[in-house]
């Protein structure tokens, strides 16, 4: 009997390892130390600077960002050391995700230092959504950590108290118009609530594109459960009333 | 997490532990008898009972693991909630009303009473220890990930901390604590999800915005990442496994009556509806908010620490802490009862006093809390994969001898033993083949099929159980 259980235990462990082995992900982007600086003005114009400290060689790597109906991103430029890098929109982009091909013109090794990416975003409306350009794969893990170290700083250059970062959750920094936090992965956007300015343009946020039937599937899913719960309770309550 | 927020998090965890200790001390005076420690004096009504059933089922596998599943596979896994209810219906109609006719404490109690053999008790108690070590490791792993991300302590230390909290929690209160903390868990989950879901809904332009973004990544995320074949086999393994799960059977033994048990199952559906919708929106929103998480199981911890506003984030994190300590507690309690009640109290020292059995139960909690720590250190797989695998083992081993055994009086002890061991072995061997749907069957389906065949064939070939047993479990036919 103990032998049976020992064999079963080994089999369980083996099976679980098989499951783990089957969930391999794409190769990570060779950087676990990222600095993102977003500066937003009252006119809705944002300037974004990203810096990826490289830990290994980097060649052709796609980047991407999540487009927003109330924001125009670009152009996106980059550099590794002294060498400029052009980012061009890839042919296979799927709205609302826009993919960018970084033309590195050959491989860079880690000694090249850091990849710097810079772009502007023009936004409209009281909720400022600044899409962040990011590698189209996970970042490398920092030593002994469960993720990368992505430091995000947001600076509001408009009047004090007229803006608040809604997403991701950042903490107030040294000045009242500055927020920052360390995250373990790149967020797709920074969302800032601003006080409406008289005469500024408004924007109705509604993404174009197919949802793949998510809405009707959700309604059927929730409807099934919402109908079933009272039906079950009434049925059994009535059964017990009848038997008593 | 900022320093003041981290302090608030630990204060909230401390307050929760203080509440648990309070409930534990209050119930300590009521748990001088084994009936109090293991089955809460059979005092639970429909709503507390429903919260208890839900709280057993909704483990870290749901609040962390299923969020991670939705993160990487999209919508389709949501159907596992209503499909799992098929198992609960089997429980409501064919298990709960019949098993409550027998005033047992644990599932091995039922096995000995129904099949008139201590071997069935011993085998089922040993199986509970093995399967629940796997299940408990998933809770520790989820808790370890959460504490690591929130506080920055190493994963190993975080796992040990989670194990310590769970052990203290369970040692102090037994089932009384478990029942009332189940209600606290339901309240926290509902409050956290009711605040967090509208926030995410609004920020990501509702289902339309989320759907457009996910459909562009991969159309399967909004449709059928998992096909119906996979969903049905996973859900039936979990649902039918729950119908015969030792901790759910202990919860059923804790209810006031058969009526309370059946209504409690309905109330657990009510709680599950909120949680099912909540974890779905969490997972889908996180895929849009942070498309490349290094590990899908980090979805909930990152949602609580970096995406939601502080108050809502704290509630979601605390609900996750309550989830893995509470379900971990239920699992530990069941494993402890397998040792103290079934192996020690019934087989090794049948004349032990009530006090000695309660003390053995508390010692067993401490001892068996340590074993899954080693498994959690290895971080075997995604949390929900571990939970699903444990469920498959459970259904292969337990479903036929419990559910068929309660409804077919010709079932015998040798039939039950052959069914349990044959079902488990088949499930494990099928998993090791490594090919999905080998011979068209999932490991759990193969396990249940072999288990059913062995149960019927061996039972028919061996003498039936005595009239006394028939009178307890099949009163209508024998009276």
Structural class based on helices, strands and sheet pairing of chain A: alpha+beta
- Write the H/E string of chain B, N to C: HHHHHHHHHHHHHHHHHHHH
What is the rounded distance between the termini of chain B? Answer: 66 Å
Strand order of the largest sheet of chain A: 9-3-6-5-4-7-2-1-10-13-12
Mean pLDDT across all amino acids of chain B: 84
* Shape-level CATH architecture of the largest domain in chain A: Sandwich
Share in β-strands of chain B: under 5%
* Oligomeric composition of the shown chains: heterodimer
The number of strands of chain B is 0
Taking all residues together, what is the mean pLDDT of chain A? 81
Question: Which pair has the most extensive contact?
Answer: A-B, 72 and 79 residues
Taking pLDDT < 50 over at least 5 consecutive residues as the criterion, the unreliable ranges of chain B are: none
Main beta-sheet annotation of chain A: 11 strands, mixed
Class inferred from helices and paired strands of chain B? mainly alpha
Instruction: Give the overall shape of chain B, derived from the CA principal axes.
Output: globular
Please describe what this structure looks like:
The complex is a heterodimer of chains A (244) and B (479). Chain A is an alpha+beta fold and 244 residues long. Chain A has two domains: 2-24 and 214-243, no CATH class; 33-194, Immunoglobulin-like (Sandwich). Chain A contains two helices and 14 strands; from the N terminus they run αββββββββββββββα. Chain A has helices at residues 2-21, 214-243; strands spanning 33-40, 45-53, 62-66, 71-80, 83-89, 97-103, 114-123, 127-131, 134-135, 149-156, 163-167, 171-172, 178-183, 189-194. In chain A, the strands form two sheets. Chain A has an eleven-stranded mixed beta sheet, with no helix packed on it. A three-stranded antiparallel beta sheet of chain A has the order 8-14-11, with no helix packed on it. In chain A, a hairpin with a 2-residue loop joins strand 4 (71-80) and strand 5 (83-89). The longest helix of chain A has 30 residues, at 214-243. Mean pLDDT of chain A is 81; it is low at 1-25. With 479 residues, chain B is an all-alpha fold. Chain B has 20 helices and no strands. In chain B, helix 3 crosses helix 8, helix 7 (118-151) crosses helix 15 and helix 8 packs across helix 15. Chain B is globular. Chain B starts with a helix and ends with a helix. The chains are: A alpha+beta (244), B mainly alpha (479).
